[in-house]
## 1
Amino acid sequence: MESDQGRRLLSKVHGKCAKPAGAGTAWIWVEDHSGLFHFPTPFAEMSLAAKADALADLLGPLLAKYVHVAGIVISDAARRRLPLPPNEDALRPAAQGFRRGLPRDRVRVAS
């Protein structure tokens, strides 16, 4: 099975960026349930820093186009993984990546 998750993500974020136009500064939050971070793809195998750079390259033009958007948060919305992954930070020139393991039974989940 092949898919272009980058194109799907870009389309989703593009729509979210357009909605709050004229409403002031906004942050866009996307919970990825499509497997962008989990299917065995080159992206999923990248380091956190490389993922942050790749997402900055993909989504940076939207931030230039939609000046009311202060930033875009992409969460992998992972199901419970045990053991939890170690915390990791990747501070990059155009993006920041953070990995935090959060047990589902200890966080509020929106549906």
## 2
Amino acid sequence: MTRKADRQYEFKLTGIVSPAPAVNRVDMILERCTQPGGVPADKVDLVGFETVTGVPAWQRHGFPRSPEPKRVGLSPVLKEWKSEFLVPPDDGPFRVRVREVEFLPNEEPRPGAFLKSGTPGEVTERTVLTDTVLLPEL
């Protein structure tokens, strides 16, 4: 993560990919923590959806990003996914959740595959990697 301006951040994930025709999709989701009862954001693990209310949870804020992978240098298997987020001036802590989704089967590329991140349909996708980055308070 790199802070580019007051509320603008750039996220970058670099890694080695399989030589399979379908490269895994990487999702980057800006989330805001709802904190009923004043629960500290670093103690909240639950990812909620719009239907969850009254429970401390991280909820999607805006649209998830699924950047296209770019080749890094001359390597055919080293890729980089990069996206920028403008964090709104809303209340609450924010974070970016990064997840890598594997396509099964992976015999054909699937550009523009329907993005299910931040919806109940997310549980139907095979997550290979997930991580979160808590954004510093502004």
## 3
Amino acid sequence: MTGDVVPREQAFAAARRVLDQALDRIARDRAAGLLSPEAELIVRRAERRYAERHGTAPTTRAA
């Protein structure tokens, strides 16, 4: 049964890869203006929460 166990590092790497792909897709869609207003609001709120938790300045979009 030990052959069925995924090592922790491998599981985290795989999850991080999927998350990075999703974040890249969101960034591309956002830059192209393809996000709905609701999705844009969700992204902005998530960025603000991240900045508050990590003590970083929130990023702003270029005009």
